[in-house]
Design goal:
By secondary structure, the protein is α+β, with helices and mostly antiparallel strands. It has three helices and seven strands. It comes from Flemingia macrophylla.
Amino acid sequence: MIKEFNTQTEVSVGLEALWAALSKEFINIVPKVLPNVVKNVQLIEGDGGVGTILIFNFLADMSPSFQREKITEFDENSHEIGLQVTEGGYLNQGLSYYKTTFQLSSIGEQKTLVNIKISYDHESDIEERVKPTKTSESTIFYLRRLEKYLQLNGS
């Protein structure tokens, strides 16, 4: 049964700049924001909208070495994007389903509220090793790094 974990964080970057970084510029920005983790992101199929398939190639000493994700939600009006892991990554750690959805809302000129929903399922008692609170921490870590990157490089 698919479970959900919800959290949120505020990012000191304007809504449009953050949306562009999480959607349109995602492929180029991720390796710059996480240079010690992600070697590159490849667009395998699609145009960046629903159905697009991406492969995140991690550095050589990382295990697993890649993660394939599919964009399952993409709404420019509500600033919502959902990415489902379809191969590698968390699925190699015992989860049978893993999806992260970001929904952005402006809360000021240079402030954006990011609602994060993690949907997951597991094949066994793996939840002790791959807790949604732990994976949400890595998602928030990415958002903090992205925030700094955008602030330094003009958001």
